[in-house]
Amino acid sequence: MELLSLRTFQAVVEEGGILAASRKLNTVQSNVTGRIRRLEEELGTELFIRKGRGLELAPSGRVLLDYARRMLMLERQTAAAVRLVGESAGELRIGAMETFAALHLPRALKAVRAGHRGLELRVFTDTSAALAERIVHHKLDCAFVAGPVVHPELVFDELIVEELVQVHAAGSDPRQQPLILFREGCAYRTRALAWQRSQGHALADAMEFGTLEGILGCVAVGLGWTLMPRRVVEQSPLADELVIEAVPPEIGRVPTGMIRLREAPQLAAMRTLAAALAQAPAQLAA
Protein backbone atom coordinates (compact mmCIF):
# COMPACT_ATOMS: atom_id res chain seq x y z
CA MET A 1 0.00 0.00 0.00
CA GLU A 2 1.65 3.22 -1.16
CA LEU A 3 1.64 6.33 0.97
CA LEU A 4 0.89 8.37 -2.16
CA SER A 5 -2.33 6.42 -2.62
CA LEU A 6 -3.30 7.00 1.01
CA ARG A 7 -2.50 10.70 0.68
CA THR A 8 -4.67 10.87 -2.42
CA PHE A 9 -7.51 9.02 -0.68
CA GLN A 10 -7.38 11.41 2.28
CA ALA A 11 -7.38 14.42 -0.04
CA VAL A 12 -10.50 13.16 -1.85
CA VAL A 13 -12.30 12.77 1.47
CA GLU A 14 -11.21 16.07 2.99
CA GLU A 15 -11.64 18.13 -0.19
CA GLY A 16 -15.00 16.58 -1.03
CA GLY A 17 -14.28 15.11 -4.43
CA ILE A 18 -11.89 14.15 -7.21
CA LEU A 19 -11.59 17.59 -8.81
CA ALA A 20 -10.88 19.44 -5.56
CA ALA A 21 -8.39 16.75 -4.53
CA SER A 22 -6.54 17.02 -7.83
CA ARG A 23 -6.18 20.75 -7.34
CA LYS A 24 -4.88 20.32 -3.82
CA LEU A 25 -2.39 17.66 -4.95
CA ASN A 26 -1.44 19.66 -8.06
CA THR A 27 -2.19 16.80 -10.43
CA VAL A 28 -4.81 15.85 -13.01
CA GLN A 29 -8.12 14.17 -12.17
CA SER A 30 -7.18 10.97 -14.01
CA ASN A 31 -4.21 10.45 -11.68
CA VAL A 32 -6.45 10.80 -8.63
CA THR A 33 -9.06 8.44 -10.07
CA GLY A 34 -6.39 5.91 -10.99
CA ARG A 35 -4.81 5.92 -7.54
CA ILE A 36 -8.18 5.41 -5.85
CA ARG A 37 -9.05 2.57 -8.23
CA ARG A 38 -5.72 0.82 -7.60
CA LEU A 39 -6.18 1.24 -3.85
CA GLU A 40 -9.64 -0.35 -4.05
CA GLU A 41 -8.26 -3.22 -6.13
CA GLU A 42 -5.44 -3.78 -3.66
CA LEU A 43 -7.82 -3.82 -0.69
CA GLY A 44 -10.51 -5.78 -2.52
CA THR A 45 -13.33 -3.43 -1.55
CA GLU A 46 -15.00 -0.22 -2.63
CA LEU A 47 -13.95 2.80 -0.62
CA PHE A 48 -16.59 5.17 -1.99
CA ILE A 49 -20.23 4.89 -2.94
CA ARG A 50 -20.80 6.67 -6.23
CA LYS A 51 -23.93 8.83 -6.17
CA GLY A 52 -24.35 10.59 -9.49
CA ARG A 53 -21.32 12.85 -9.78
CA GLY A 54 -20.69 12.78 -6.05
CA LEU A 55 -18.83 10.41 -3.75
CA GLU A 56 -19.78 9.17 -0.32
CA LEU A 57 -17.50 7.16 1.97
CA ALA A 58 -18.36 3.50 2.15
CA PRO A 59 -18.07 1.73 5.54
CA SER A 60 -14.70 0.31 4.50
CA GLY A 61 -13.62 3.80 3.46
CA ARG A 62 -14.39 5.18 6.92
CA VAL A 63 -12.19 2.49 8.46
CA LEU A 64 -9.37 3.20 6.02
CA LEU A 65 -9.56 6.96 6.62
CA ASP A 66 -8.68 6.55 10.29
CA TYR A 67 -5.72 4.31 9.52
CA ALA A 68 -4.60 6.50 6.60
CA ARG A 69 -4.45 9.54 8.85
CA ARG A 70 -2.42 7.63 11.41
CA MET A 71 0.01 6.29 8.83
CA LEU A 72 0.50 9.66 7.14
CA MET A 73 0.99 11.36 10.48
CA LEU A 74 3.56 8.74 11.47
CA GLU A 75 5.35 9.24 8.15
CA ARG A 76 5.52 13.00 8.72
CA GLN A 77 6.58 12.63 12.36
CA THR A 78 9.23 10.08 11.46
CA ALA A 79 10.76 12.37 8.85
CA ALA A 80 10.59 15.34 11.21
CA ALA A 81 12.14 13.39 14.09
CA VAL A 82 15.05 12.22 11.93
CA ARG A 83 15.68 15.75 10.65
CA LEU A 84 15.47 17.22 14.13
CA VAL A 85 18.29 14.98 15.31
CA GLY A 86 20.77 16.65 13.01
CA GLU A 87 19.60 19.72 11.14
CA SER A 88 16.76 20.78 13.45
CA ALA A 89 14.52 21.07 10.40
CA GLY A 90 10.96 20.11 9.65
CA GLU A 91 7.55 21.34 10.72
CA LEU A 92 5.73 21.50 14.05
CA ARG A 93 1.99 22.16 14.12
CA ILE A 94 0.91 23.68 17.43
CA GLY A 95 -2.60 24.38 18.70
CA ALA A 96 -3.55 26.69 21.55
CA MET A 97 -6.52 28.36 23.16
CA GLU A 98 -6.67 32.00 22.19
CA THR A 99 -6.00 33.20 25.75
CA PHE A 100 -3.02 30.87 26.07
CA ALA A 101 -1.67 31.95 22.70
CA ALA A 102 -1.85 35.60 23.72
CA LEU A 103 -0.42 35.16 27.20
CA HIS A 104 2.12 32.34 27.22
CA LEU A 105 2.89 31.02 23.75
CA PRO A 106 5.19 33.80 22.42
CA ARG A 107 7.86 33.09 25.03
CA ALA A 108 7.68 29.35 24.40
CA LEU A 109 7.90 29.82 20.63
CA LYS A 110 10.95 32.03 21.12
CA ALA A 111 12.65 29.18 22.97
CA VAL A 112 11.86 26.77 20.13
CA ARG A 113 13.23 29.22 17.58
CA ALA A 114 16.46 29.49 19.54
CA GLY A 115 16.90 25.75 19.97
CA HIS A 116 15.57 24.52 16.61
CA ARG A 117 16.44 27.21 14.10
CA GLY A 118 15.50 25.25 10.99
CA LEU A 119 12.08 24.24 12.27
CA GLU A 120 8.96 25.69 10.67
CA LEU A 121 6.32 26.53 13.25
CA ARG A 122 2.61 26.63 12.44
CA VAL A 123 0.19 27.83 15.12
CA PHE A 124 -3.58 27.37 15.20
CA THR A 125 -6.01 28.75 17.79
CA ASP A 126 -9.33 27.17 18.73
CA THR A 127 -11.34 25.91 21.70
CA SER A 128 -9.94 23.14 23.91
CA ALA A 129 -12.47 20.63 22.57
CA ALA A 130 -11.73 21.46 18.93
CA LEU A 131 -7.96 21.28 19.50
CA ALA A 132 -8.26 17.86 21.14
CA GLU A 133 -10.25 16.63 18.14
CA ARG A 134 -7.58 17.94 15.76
CA ILE A 135 -4.90 16.05 17.70
CA VAL A 136 -6.92 12.82 17.57
CA HIS A 137 -7.37 13.24 13.82
CA HIS A 138 -3.64 13.80 13.33
CA LYS A 139 -4.00 17.41 12.21
CA LEU A 140 -1.81 18.84 15.00
CA ASP A 141 1.33 17.60 16.73
CA CYS A 142 0.48 19.12 20.11
CA ALA A 143 -1.86 21.65 21.64
CA PHE A 144 -2.17 23.71 24.81
CA VAL A 145 -5.60 23.33 26.40
CA ALA A 146 -7.45 23.68 29.67
CA GLY A 147 -7.62 20.44 31.61
CA PRO A 148 -7.85 18.04 33.05
CA VAL A 149 -8.05 16.00 29.84
CA VAL A 150 -8.96 12.33 30.09
CA HIS A 151 -8.90 10.60 26.71
CA PRO A 152 -7.64 7.11 25.78
CA GLU A 153 -5.67 8.43 22.79
CA LEU A 154 -4.19 11.54 24.41
CA VAL A 155 -1.54 12.40 26.99
CA PHE A 156 -2.10 15.54 29.08
CA ASP A 157 0.99 17.08 30.69
CA GLU A 158 -0.02 19.81 33.14
CA LEU A 159 2.30 22.82 32.93
CA ILE A 160 0.59 25.72 34.70
CA VAL A 161 -2.55 26.59 36.63
CA GLU A 162 -4.56 29.52 35.34
CA GLU A 163 -6.71 31.61 37.66
CA LEU A 164 -10.08 32.54 36.22
CA VAL A 165 -11.72 35.67 37.62
CA GLN A 166 -15.11 37.28 37.16
CA VAL A 167 -14.86 40.42 35.04
CA HIS A 168 -17.39 43.21 34.55
CA ALA A 169 -17.43 46.93 33.82
CA ALA A 170 -16.96 49.44 36.63
CA GLY A 171 -20.32 50.49 38.04
CA SER A 172 -22.23 47.51 36.60
CA ASP A 173 -23.87 44.60 38.43
CA PRO A 174 -22.99 41.26 36.79
CA ARG A 175 -26.00 39.61 38.45
CA GLN A 176 -28.22 41.74 36.22
CA GLN A 177 -26.23 41.20 33.02
CA PRO A 178 -25.88 38.40 30.47
CA LEU A 179 -22.80 36.23 30.36
CA ILE A 180 -20.37 36.85 27.49
CA LEU A 181 -18.26 33.86 26.55
CA PHE A 182 -16.40 31.92 23.89
CA ARG A 183 -18.24 29.54 21.59
CA GLU A 184 -19.11 25.93 22.38
CA GLY A 185 -16.09 23.76 23.21
CA CYS A 186 -14.26 26.31 25.36
CA ALA A 187 -13.32 24.92 28.79
CA TYR A 188 -13.79 28.34 30.37
CA ARG A 189 -17.34 28.41 29.03
CA THR A 190 -18.33 25.37 31.08
CA ARG A 191 -16.99 26.94 34.28
CA ALA A 192 -18.62 30.29 33.54
CA LEU A 193 -22.03 28.66 33.07
CA ALA A 194 -21.59 26.69 36.30
CA TRP A 195 -20.69 29.90 38.15
CA GLN A 196 -23.68 31.69 36.64
CA ARG A 197 -26.05 28.97 37.85
CA SER A 198 -24.53 28.82 41.32
CA GLN A 199 -24.89 32.59 41.80
CA GLY A 200 -28.52 32.70 40.68
CA HIS A 201 -27.99 35.47 38.15
CA ALA A 202 -31.19 37.23 37.15
CA LEU A 203 -30.27 36.82 33.47
CA ALA A 204 -29.49 33.28 32.39
CA ASP A 205 -28.88 34.13 28.73
CA ALA A 206 -25.45 34.44 27.15
CA MET A 207 -23.73 36.09 24.20
CA GLU A 208 -20.99 34.35 22.22
CA PHE A 209 -17.88 35.86 20.65
CA GLY A 210 -15.00 34.23 18.83
CA THR A 211 -12.22 36.53 19.99
CA LEU A 212 -10.68 37.63 23.26
CA GLU A 213 -10.79 41.28 22.24
CA GLY A 214 -14.47 41.04 21.35
CA ILE A 215 -15.40 39.63 24.74
CA LEU A 216 -13.41 42.11 26.82
CA GLY A 217 -14.52 45.01 24.64
CA CYS A 218 -18.20 44.24 25.21
CA VAL A 219 -17.64 43.68 28.92
CA ALA A 220 -15.80 47.00 29.20
CA VAL A 221 -18.80 48.94 27.87
CA GLY A 222 -21.20 47.21 30.25
CA LEU A 223 -22.90 44.74 27.90
CA GLY A 224 -22.24 41.76 30.16
CA TRP A 225 -19.74 39.89 32.32
CA THR A 226 -17.33 37.01 31.76
CA LEU A 227 -14.78 34.66 33.31
CA MET A 228 -11.25 35.18 32.02
CA PRO A 229 -7.68 34.39 33.17
CA ARG A 230 -6.57 37.08 35.59
CA ARG A 231 -3.35 37.88 33.74
CA VAL A 232 -5.20 38.30 30.44
CA VAL A 233 -7.42 40.94 32.02
CA GLU A 234 -4.58 42.67 33.86
CA GLN A 235 -2.55 42.96 30.66
CA SER A 236 -5.48 44.13 28.53
CA PRO A 237 -5.53 47.74 27.26
CA LEU A 238 -9.04 47.85 28.76
CA ALA A 239 -7.86 46.89 32.26
CA ASP A 240 -8.66 50.32 33.78
CA GLU A 241 -12.29 49.97 32.70
CA LEU A 242 -12.76 46.48 34.16
CA VAL A 243 -13.46 45.16 37.65
CA ILE A 244 -11.85 41.85 38.64
CA GLU A 245 -13.44 39.63 41.30
CA ALA A 246 -12.10 36.31 42.55
CA VAL A 247 -14.21 33.15 42.32
CA PRO A 248 -13.95 29.91 44.36
CA PRO A 249 -10.99 27.63 43.51
CA GLU A 250 -13.23 24.88 42.14
CA ILE A 251 -14.31 27.35 39.46
CA GLY A 252 -11.25 29.58 39.16
CA ARG A 253 -8.26 27.23 39.20
CA VAL A 254 -7.78 25.61 35.81
CA PRO A 255 -4.94 23.15 35.15
CA THR A 256 -3.52 23.93 31.74
CA GLY A 257 -1.03 21.94 29.73
CA MET A 258 0.04 20.18 26.56
CA ILE A 259 -1.87 17.35 24.89
CA ARG A 260 -0.41 14.99 22.32
CA LEU A 261 -1.15 11.57 20.88
CA ARG A 262 -0.26 8.78 23.28
CA GLU A 263 1.21 6.56 20.55
CA ALA A 264 3.08 9.28 18.64
CA PRO A 265 6.73 10.09 19.32
CA GLN A 266 7.31 13.30 21.28
CA LEU A 267 9.56 15.48 19.14
CA ALA A 268 12.44 17.39 20.68
CA ALA A 269 10.79 20.71 19.84
CA MET A 270 7.70 19.68 21.79
CA ARG A 271 9.85 19.03 24.84
CA THR A 272 11.43 22.45 24.36
CA LEU A 273 7.97 24.04 24.27
CA ALA A 274 6.91 22.36 27.49
CA ALA A 275 10.18 23.16 29.25
CA ALA A 276 9.96 26.85 28.34
CA LEU A 277 6.59 27.05 30.08
CA ALA A 278 7.56 24.95 33.07
CA GLN A 279 10.75 26.89 33.83
CA ALA A 280 8.93 29.88 35.31
CA PRO A 281 6.13 28.44 37.48
CA ALA A 282 6.20 31.33 39.90
CA GLN A 283 5.34 33.77 37.12
CA LEU A 284 2.72 31.60 35.46
CA ALA A 285 0.88 29.84 38.22
CA ALA A 286 -2.15 31.40 39.81
TrEMBL record:
A molecular-function term among this protein's GO annotations: transcription cis-regulatory region binding
Sequence ranges assigned to domain HTH lysR-type in this UniProt record: 1-58
Pfam families associated with the record: HTH_1 (PF00126), LysR_substrate (PF03466)
InterPro entries given in the database record: LysR_HTH_N, LysR_subst-bd, WH-like_DNA-bd_sf, WH_DNA-bd_sf
Record's keyword terms, sorted: DNA-binding, Transcription, Transcription regulation
Domain of life assignment: Bacteria
Family, per entry: Belongs to the LysR transcriptional regulatory family.
Name listed for the protein in its UniProt record: Transcriptional regulator
